[in-house]
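Team,

Forwarding the record for the chain on the shared tracking sheet. I've put the sequence and predicted structure together so nobody has to dig through attachments.
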Amino acid sequence: MASQSASMPSISSSIQSTPVVNNTSSNTAASKPKPCCVCKDEKSKRDECMLFSKAADPASDCKSTIDQYRSCMAGFGFQI
């Protein structure tokens, strides 16, 4: 038992000396939202247009809604 108590302080001292997680990455992540959380209205309009388009090429038929979604995402720093 004496050997265990002698090793306990070294364990607790090593735990206390572990470095703190760098907060700069969490600050960057907190300032930039996730892509799924922005431009929800534009995304739903784009999806609805693409899904229910009767055109042979839905992408060309829905170009304006796709462009609106892309410009909205670009405003948040995302490139699509």
